[in-house]
């Protein structure tokens, strides 16, 4: 009741009733499993740097060797969040939209 009333002060509860507990957690908290392909797809490199640069390839080789626990720590370090988002704005708006994590 306390959490529900607090949540109701921020968002309407009726649409949330359409989601099950797992769906609601996923949309609010993000994915527990760190999907490296999702991160690669949504990584934006600075001008002059490309995914085929040697140091970027070395970086991804290291990232691909990490355990899920260490990947979550990397996400926490890089983005100050422990989970990656459920979706990225570019999935709804096209690849020109901003990516997440920021």
**Rg, Å, rounded:** 17 Å
Mean pLDDT: 82
Give the end-to-end Cα distance, rounded to a whole number of Å.
33 Å
N to C succession of SSEs:
HHHHHHH
Largest sheet, described in full? none
Structural class per helix/strand content?
Answer: mainly alpha
> What's the tally of helices?
7
What is the percent of helical residues?
40-55%
Overall geometry comes to elongated
Total strand segments: 0
- Please state roughly what percent of the residues sit in beta strands, choosing from under 5%, 5-15%, 15-25%, 25-35%, 35-45% or over 45%: under 5%
Q: pLDDT under 50 segments (min length 5)?
A: none
Helix and strand topology:
Elements: H1 2-8, H2 13-16, H3 21-29, H4 36-41, H5 54-64, H6 68-79, H7 89-93
Describe the structure.
The protein is mainly alpha-helical and about 100 residues long. The protein is about 55% helix and about 0% strand. The protein has seven helices and no strands. It has helices at about 1-10, 15, 20-30, 35-40, 55-65, 70-80, 90-95. The chain is elongated. The two termini are about 35 Å apart. The model has no long low-confidence stretch (mean pLDDT about 80).
């Amino acid at each position: 009741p306390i959490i529900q009333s607090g949540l109701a002060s921020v968002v309407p509860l009726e649409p949330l009733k359409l989601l099950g507990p797992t769906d609601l957690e996923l949309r609010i908290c993000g994915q527990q499993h760190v999907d490296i392909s999702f991160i690669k797809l949504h990584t934006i490199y600075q001008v002059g740097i490309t995914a085929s640069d040697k140091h970027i390839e070395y970086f991804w080789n290291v990232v691909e060797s990490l355990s899920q626990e260490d990947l979550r720590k990397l996400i926490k370090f890089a983005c100050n969040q422990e989970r990656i988002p459920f979706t990225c704005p570019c999935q709804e708006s096209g690849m020109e939209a901003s990516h997440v994590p920021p």
